[in-house]
Amino acid sequence: MPSHITVNGLGLTYKGTIGLSIATIPDVCKTPSPGGPIPLPYPNIATQSTLKDGTTTVFAKGGKMIAVKGSQYGMSSGDEPGTVGGVKSNVFKKATDWITYSFDVKMDGKNACRHTDKKFHNDKNTVNLAGDLDPLPPGGQALLDIVCECHKHIDDVDAGRSRKATCPELGEQKHSCVDAGCRLHNAQGKTPKLQAEECYSVETGDHIPNVSRQCPPNVPFWQHRRWLSGKIFPDGAILDANGKVDRFTEYKFQCPKGTPVAYAKATGAPRGLSEGTTPQTWTPAKFNKKGVMKKADQRTRTVELGAKQKPPVTNPPLLLTSEMCK
Q1: Is residue 209 one of the residues assigned to a domain?
Q2: What does the pLDDT read at residue 165?
């Protein structure tokens, strides 16, 4: 199952979790041919089930070994034809090694490893720069399909406009599209049911119906923003058979390169252009000038909201990003 234990707001990797580490750069291996070995690119995949060299005194969930600096996924696959070995490592099907890890959380005196950390593959012949992929929960694939369809559709529509939408405007349009897709999914009788964006009380976790995050017409933005204080708007949720929240969901969309970040009010000219490289991850915590946290990171706030539901939501929130689209 996906990790329910977090380190620095990220899932901790331990023996009981399942998921894949897929090299994001081809694993180029020397492959036998009649004319001698030739270098050919292959995929390289490792699974969390092969974790080795983990903790020996600190464990997760009933004695599960935890991945720390120096741990490995003991073997990989996908490059089997390259029997002469990687162009750099001279081996194939070999282990992964963590490149990044937590700098301030340690287990057995070693830095803890998380799902999103980067890894070398096949004895450092290639790398995974994206982190592990957990299998999507029930309803997750249907929701990802909606996310990807909306991401492509809104970008395609915007490409035909003379005045390009800004990154925030595109984001709002894509989120509205996903909300509509969730409602259509439910109307077609598909299961599990998907919940569009809804409002909740941060303090009590109570659902507040018929409240929108969008500022109504003719209402000053500052006034609406003040009214939203103490409220939280998860992008969506996957519901259980009883219509209760099974897990909250969040969507992140990459703004296309060259898209205006904003327009200058005086001239109407674009004010900054997107590089198309913004990391698609949970919104980080906010701190004041003295380093005191003013607002917890988005994932933590969503987990805390889940704990206040009746019954409590025990599944971790699901982050779906446009980077996951094929």
Answers
A1: no
A2: 94
C-alpha distances in Å from residue 2, one per residue of 19, 55, 104, 140, 317: 7, 19, 23, 13, 11
CA distance 113 to 98: 8
> 150 lies in which domain range?
140-197+234-324
pLDDT tens per residue across span 286-311:
888 888 888 888 988 999 999 999 99
Cβ within 8 Å of residue 90, ≥6 positions away: 84
Among the residue ranges 1-5, 117-121, 194-198, 244-248, the one predicted with the least confidence is: 1-5
Does residue 134 surpass a pLDDT of 80? no
Alpha-carbon distances of 154 from 7, 253, 261, 273, rounded to whole Å: 35, 11, 16, 18
The Cα–Cα gap between 292 and 283 comes to: 17
Output the pLDDT for position 111: 96
Q: How much is the pLDDT for 18?
A: 65
- 152 and 79 together in one domain: no
Q: What is the pLDDT of residue 292?
A: 84
What's the burial of 309, exposed, middle or buried (CB within 10 Å: 0-12/13-18/19+)? middle
- Is residue 235 within 8 A of residue 251, CB to CB? The reply is yes
Is 164 domain-assigned?
Answer: yes
Contact present, 89 and 122 (Cβ < 8 Å) = yes
Grouping H, G, I as helix, E, B as strand and the rest as coil, residue 182 is helix
- pLDDT confidence band for 39 (50 / 70 / 90): very high
Distance CA 141, CA 164 (A): 30
Q: Mapped to the 3 state alphabet, what secondary structure does 195-248 carry?
A: ECCCEEECCCCCEECCCCCCCCCCCCHHHHHHHCCCEECCCEEEECCCCCEEEE
What is the dihedral sign for C-alpha 292, 296, 297, 298?
negative
Give yes or no: residues 178 and 275 share one domain: yes
